[in-house]
Each structure stands twice: as C-alpha cells, then as structure tokens.
Specification:
The complex is a heterodimer of chains A (307) and B (240). Chain A has helices spanning 48-56, 76-80, 97-107, 115-125, 130-133, 142-153, 172-187, 199-205, 242-251, 271-283, 297-302, and strands spanning 4-15, 22-33, 37-41, 63-68, 82-85, 160-164, 191-195, 208-213, 216-222, 232-237, 256-258, 263-266, 288-294. With 307 residues, chain A is α/β, with parallel strands linked by helices. Chain B starts with a helix and ends in an 8-residue tail after the last helix.
C-alpha cells in the first residue's frame, strides 16, 4: 500500500449540548492514498460534511486524529496545496466574478503578477465567459455560482481537492465540465475527496467510495484497478433475443441475470469478462446494443446494504 | 493580512446603507468642525464606529465566506487582525473624509455664503484625527472580541450591555450603602473601558498617565481574548 496522503484515525465528533447530543462521526478511520479520488456516500445527516469539515480543520474531532501528509490539517503548507469548494458559495455577493477569483488567487500565496492570466484561465476551464467575470456574484445563477466555485477551488492546480457537491444545481453541461475538471485533476495526480449525492458522477470519477451512515463508515468499495471490489456490467440486446443471449452466456460459463427490456446484468465483470461476453454474443449472432460498466452504487445505497 | 484589510474596506464601501449613513454623519461633523474652527475636534460619535465595526467576524462566519478563507494558507490570527486593522483603516478613511470636508467648508463654502467662521488650522485637524483614531481603538477591539463568538449584530448589543452593566454595582452600592460595591464598579469601569482624554495627551499631558496605561492594557486584553476565542472556535457549514 502506498503511504496515505490523508490518514483519519478513529475520529469521533459530537454536536449539541448535554441531553441533546448528536454523534455526527463515530470512530471513523480511513486512508486516502496519494492520487486517489475518494467518494463519500451517505444520506442526509450521515456525517459526510462533518467529516469534510474535520479534514479542513473547521471542526475539531472530540477524539481521534487526522493527518495530511503527516501534518496537522491546519498546516499552512498543506493549505497552500489545497483547493476547497463548499456546497454553497457563501461569499461577498458584491464582488465581481473576476475580483472573487483574484482574491482567492492572491490569498493562496501565488504570484500576484499572474493574477489576471490565472483568473481568465480558471474562468475558461469552467466555461464562464469573460463577460460574466465582470458581473457581480449576486447576479449569477446557481449554476454559475457552482462553476465559479469550482474555478476558485482549482486555482493554481492544487494537489489536494475537497469538493462538496460540486455539480449541485448545474445544468448537464456544467455537470460535464465539473467531471472533466475532476478527471483532469486526477490525471495530474491530485488527491481528491468528493462528497456528492450524484452517484453516477461519483462512479465515473472515483477510484474508491466509502459509505457513511449515522457517523460510521459502513462499507468501502474499490471501483477501479485490479483491486476493484465491485465490478458490474450491463449488456443490452434486443428484447426478443434476451433469452437466447442468456442461454449463450450461461453455456459459456458467464454468470448473467436477466433484466428489463433486453438487459443482461453480469455480476462479476472485469474488463476481460465483459469482452468475453460480447464475443460470445457476437458469435451467437446476437447484436449487442449497449455495454455499460457500472458499480451500481445506487443499488447499494437503496438496497439497504448500508447498515 | 493586507488582503483582509482590503477586503474589509471593499465590503464596507459596497454597502450603500452604510455609505449614506456615514455621509450624513460626515457632513454634520464637518459642518460643526468648520464653524468651530477645528476646536471641537473630530467628534463623529459612536454610531459611525458601530457602522464600520459591527458584525466584523460573525457575518463572514454565518455566510460561509470564512470557511473559504480559512481553507487558504492564512492563520486565523492573520484573518482576525486583518479584520481589526480593516475596521481601523475604514474609520481612518472616514475621519480623513470628515476633516477634508470640514476644511473645504471652512475655506470655500462658508465664506461663499458670507457666514462667520473661525479659520480651521491643520494642526487642530491633525490632533482631532489622532484623538478620533485612538478613541476608536478600544471600542473596535471590544466589538471584534464579541463578534468572534456572538452571531450577527449581537456584538453591538453586547457592547451596550457591557457599558450598562459596568456602573450597575456602583448604583447598587449607593442604594444598599455598600461602599465596596461602588469601589468594584469604579475599578471595573476604569479598567475594562477606561476613558482617556486624548486631546490632553496630544497636548503633552498625561501621556504616560495611569489612564493611558489602563487603556493600552484593556486593548491588549481584548485583542488577545479575541484571538484566543477565535483560534478555538469551530465553524460548521452545510448539512451532512
């Protein structure tokens, strides 16, 4: 195992006063490896935002410890390499978009001479036109606020990103832009912690997900690589050929379950298994209409697997 | 810290309500000053400082801006003292504007309308500016301290409560004929919110007097207390 960039050890956090105390985190331990993208999954009130707040040093754990690269979370060296986007952008709404980004660029300790260039580049990355940069934040739509929030988080290409519902309230293009930015950050080796309810997006960008319920870590699933613990695939054929497709797969010793409208679900499907299944169907002269790899996180989330 | 001071000034300048209120106070102050020939000093009243110093930290904390700032490589102390210096910079700008308007009124407008005036001297204006600034240092520190842990504009309320509470033991002592209560009250008043006659200090009197010493100590205590509270405070955001 690679050394952990983020190490969380038995962290507990309780809110409230005597008699009305709520345990938001209960002995959470996890390690996020350098370059890994970790997704936090859980219902409302599960403890995800509390965990993010502890990771960022806004909240202090009652017990346990958190270290980032062996340093405390409020270490200024760590913060200089950190990008953070809150769920809702609560900032001076009288600032223009350009001033907002410039403020965060300067605050990050970066070269002030590059401010204008970096502000423009950040706006381009999230698809905000230059005209919008001159407008005050209070005139921005929710989607535009989310985009400029992501732009400020990725200013200076930080190698540690904490994103809380980054695509919430954005249009489909905004969702795609946020996804591309996360994938770009991944590609340059950034370590990312993503809190999102958009499970298909989580699945597309995360290497691993952890489920949090009532402040406890209940499940961890690796989604990519040789260590992938949850590999599912769906193959869709014409509905009237589904039965013969199932027979062909079973004959080839490939476990599959029939679904709706010609869907066949492969329970344990790595890349090789999916390729083999497609080959079997092609040889049986059954046209494959769609192939989709999916960890089916929603199934896990809805199916009560999170106990 | 410079960024924090700039941001504070920008925030205050962006608020139209604050600007209008300060404008009215500035005009009244300047007119009084111009007519008196600068001898009245820059007495802008406590309201102008309240307008500039209220909710200096609490507004950021409740709006979520603070969390975004604290995620950057900036210590909490830098943020806090940046806000404090921002208050003082805003107040200094306001006093300077008052002095300029007063000078313009005295030299141009009052003679234009044939009104009687006493010439405003630059040294008198400077003394007034200095006294005004030093007079704001302690109230700004007290308001900052309260704003580190009280929500919204409760810092202003707490300040007034403090001013009201300090003489209460003295009044009780008088009513109950308990001299020790009166002594406690006087002691608390002298040490928590000491009054310094800055005009006299600028005139070379009581520069190192007991009142000046108590004032310096009170400023230091409130600032250190603000830093201690703020560095320990937790800032939750959003929902799980």
């Amino acid at each position: 195992m690679l050394p952990g960039m983020i190490v969380v050890e038995a962290v507990s956090k309780t809110y409230g006063r005597l008699g009305r105390r709520t345990r938001a985190l209960d002995g959470v331990s996890l390690t996020v490896r350098r370059g890994e993208t970790l997704g936090l999954i859980g219902g409302n009130g599960a403890g995800k935002t509390t965990l993010l707040s502890c990771l960022l040093g806004f909240l202090r754990p009652d017990s346990g410890a958190i270290a980032i690269d062996g340093c405390p979370v409020d270490d200024l060296g760590v913060r200089a390499r950190t990008g953070y986007m809150p769920e809702r952008l609560g900032f001076d709404r009288d600032l223009t978009g350009a001033d907002f980004l410039a403020f965060h660029w300067r605050l990050s300790g970066a070269d002030p001479r590059k401010t204008a260039a970096e502000v423009g580049a950040a706006a381009d990355r999230v698809g905000l036109d230059r005209g919008a940069l001159g407008r005050r934040l209070k005139t921005y739509s929710r989607g535009m606020l989310q985009r400029i929030g992501v732009a400020q988080a990725t200013l200076g290409d930080p190698d540690l990103l904490f994103l809380d519902e980054p695509a919430s309230g954005t249009d489909p293009l905004g969702v795609a832009i946020v996804r591309d930015l996360i994938l770009a950050a991944k590609a340059r080796g950034a370590t990312i912690v993503l809190n999102s309810h958009q499970l298909p997006e989580v699945e597309r960008v995360c290497d691993r997900v952890v489920f949090i319920d009532h402040g406890r870590l209940t499940r961890s699933e690796t989604l990519t690589g040789a260590e992938a613990s949850r590999r599912r695939a769906m193959i869709r054929v014409a509905a009237d050929r589904a039965e013969s497709a199932l027979t062909a797969l079973t004959t080839a010793s490939i476990a599959a379950e029939p679904g709706q409208s010609g869907q066949l679900r492969l329970a344990d499907a790595g890349e090789a298994e999916v390729a083999k299944a497609v080959r079997v169907l092609a040889l049986a002269d059954i046209p494959v209409l769609e192939v989709r790899a999916s960890a089916e996180l929603e199934e896990l989330f809805r199916g009560g697997s999170v106990s | 810290m410079t960024e924090m001071i700039r941001r504070y000034l920008r925030q205050k300048l962006a608020s139209l309500g604050v600007l209008v209120a300060l404008g009215v106070i500035a005009l009244v102050t300047a007119f009084t000053l111009a007519v008196s020939g600068g001898e009245r000093g820059l007495e802008t009243g406590f309201v102008s400082l309240l307008l500039l110093a209220a909710a200096s930290v609490s507004k950021d904390a409740s709006g979520g801006a603070l969390q975004m700032i604290l995620a950057r490589p900036l210590t909490r102390t830098d943020y806090l003292f940046g806000r404090y210096l921002g208050i003082l910079a805003a107040y200094a700008s306001f006093l300077a504007a008052c002095a300029l308007i007063a000078y313009a009124l005295a030299t141009v407008f009052l003679p234009l309308f044939g009104l009687e005036r006493t010439p405003v001297s630059a040294p008198a204006l400077l003394r007034g500016f200095g006294a005004g600034m030093l007079g704001a240092v302690l109230p700004a520190a007290v308001l900052l301290f309260f704003s580190t842990f009280l929500p919204g504009y409760a810092d202003v309320l707490a300040y007034f409560l403090l001013m009201i509470a300090l003489p209460v033991p003295g009044l009780l002592g008088q009513a109950l004929r308990k001299p020790w209560l009166e002594r406690v009250s006087a002691l608390a008043k002298e040490n928590v919110l000491p009054e310094v006659r800055w005009e006299q200090v600028f005139g070379g009197k009581e520069v190192l007097g007991a009142a000046t010493g108590r004032w310096a100590l009170a400023v230091a205590v409130f600032l250190v207390a603000a830093a201690a509270v703020f560095s320990r405070r937790e800032f939750a955001y959003g929902q799980d």
